[in-house]
């Protein structure tokens, strides 16, 4: 999350290897999304001596180095070892001035799960915004920046919002400049990427009074449900948008009508029940026969978003059935 | 170790996993958090196991969890190796005592102990490899699962050995576990950064000159070897390299080159381009500790962070950059050839080598194509 704030520097307080692990993963997924350059990810480079005598000096020195570059903000992430040896990260960060230095409680496995880190980062970043005058737009909250289809999924949600005459205010946080975070509280609605972000939605609601929708539209029926839900929250008449979307849904089913009657199996089913439910809905809508001896078709770990996501999945199913 | 912007090289724990996971018959357990498990699992594409310790284990001890994972793996045949990560190494548990009475191999290789090669060496030392005077053949070493060229290197050097009538001995580290204790008395290298130190070293296989010297060594030390087919192949293929490079030089100036890699691969690339293209080697930036050069031919320095690398590229302004996709992300439209991980952003399916004859052909081919793509 924090590396998606373009003009900020992220400091990972721990051994170099921890930072390399993270950067390597971000590098791989960013290239998949045609994002060539990444913002700096600076390691405090803890050595064995720091581990024995404490790593606060290394953090202090690193912060001085990065603050001297005058970034928009500095985000400080802690690692497992730092919490184990008991460094007071908050105290060191609190002693710095001139640039916002924001502690994101992570601490590796001591800080909780991957999702806990995402939520903590978003809530910490939201602390940089103040309540603002409404602009009638919509925030997208907590996109899965490591997801291969992150841009396609965003485009689909933007398309649906546009059907209701709504536009996107902020992708919080995806490829964002620090000063744009100030407008976080100006939106009329927050759309969460998935329900695991509800603590973030609640935090933003409490802070800015912004209502939220808990998830992107999933599967063959998700788009219409999403339109109705957004319209209801924003007080917009959804009928025209819903009719248009139902037309697109039917067009998609017609385009893949040749698959009707095919025997398919879903193995292995994704751990996310939403994903298996979405796959079954699509199969039923196309009158596919689901049985264990059917030809295996791919079921993605995260379910397809909107009708365009369903179309891409159906091309993969057709390939699997014809292979 | 001072602060480092965007560190480019994996830690010692990953190096230990790269060594041990290369042996069939060892179940490798990463004793640490899910995050410490996830990175080597994705980099090495090898089956690994983890203890996935949580806060509870840090407070009350990780022994029960470690014994549980080892218990699950016991009885499956083969050996179990445990690699400790940062937190178990510092919370003061006596893991060695916990494992007393078992035949579990313990490698204390926390990330803060150093870099990839440090962990690889520690793990190999824990295996205590031995030579078997009765075993025929020549071992191949320098193989690390972290190297995208490792499979190609094995295939290529095995091909050359078989062409010389020599059986392949133990492959360090990509073999059955029991082979580590029965290695042949002689060894040939593919990458000195991961040298095993097992047996008499015959020489390396990076570059035609090294290959020639190594196989000449083989002919004097291995009675039944017939190295002539290999030496003939080297002459023929070197002529092809010279011809292709000469043709390039008829139209173009030699490239100014910046090389960023592990020390062994970096010097191989620099030597190859200097020899065949008369390239100007502007910098050799090594990820690990540099190898001493017999003669100080190139400006060599250890560069471990992307910011350092970016600054160096801006300073020397090379025509061609050799490195990883990290380097490619900061070089704009300069020519690029990838020789170290990660090599993201392009599909790689074939097992291409850097070692052996084909390794040099592959390297020169990639360099010439990359440079010609930039010709206007």
Based on the structure given, which CATH architecture of the largest domain in chain B is correct? 3-Layer(aba) Sandwich
Roughly what percent helix of chain B?
A: 40-55%
CATH architectural arrangement of the largest domain in chain A: 3-Layer(aba) Sandwich
What is the SS-derived class of chain A? alpha/beta
Principal-axes geometry of chain A comes out as globular
Poorly predicted ranges of chain B: none
CATH uppermost class of the largest domain in chain A? Alpha Beta
What is the CA–CA distance across the termini of chain A?
Answer: 39 Å
Multimeric state: heterodimer
Q: Taking Cα atoms only, what radius of gyration of chain B do you get, to the nearest Å?
A: 22 Å
Sketch the major β-sheet of chain A.
4 strands, parallel
CATH homologous superfamily assignment of the largest domain in chain B: Nitrogenase molybdenum iron protein domain
Element string of chain B (H = helix, E = strand): EHEEHEHHEHHEHEHEEEEHHEHEEHEHEH
**CATH-derived topology of the largest domain in chain B:** Rossmann fold
Structure characteristics:
heterodimer; A: 323 residues; alpha/beta; Rossmann fold; 3 domains; 4-stranded parallel sheet; 12 helices; B: 376 residues; 5-stranded parallel sheet; 14 helices
Secondary-structure map:
The complex is a heterodimer of chains A (about 325) and B (about 375).
Chain A: E1 9-13, H1 16-32, E2 41-43, H2 48-53, H3 56-67, E3 74-78, H4 80-85, H5 89-94, E4 101-104, H6 114-126, E5 138-141, H7 150-163, E6 168-172, E7 189-192, H8 198-208, E8 212-213, H9 219-234, H10 239-255, E9 263-265, H11 273-285, E10 289-290, E11 295-296, H12 306-322
Parallel strand pairs in A: 1-2, 1-3, 3-4, 5-6, 5-7, 7-8, 9-10, 9-11
Chain B: E1 4-5, H1 12-20, E2 23-24, E3 26-31, H2 34-44, E4 49-50, H3 55-60, H4 63-73, E5 79-84, H5 86-90, H6 95-98, E6 105-108, H7 116-127, E7 138-141, H8 150-163, E8 168-171, E9 175-176, E10 186-189, E11 200-204, H9 208-221, H10 228-251, E12 256-261, H11 263-277, E13 280-286, E14 300-302, H12 306-316, E15 320-323, H13 325-328, E16 335-338, H14 356-373
Parallel strand pairs in B: 2-9, 3-4, 3-5, 5-6, 7-8, 7-10, 10-11, 12-13, 12-15, 13-14, 15-16
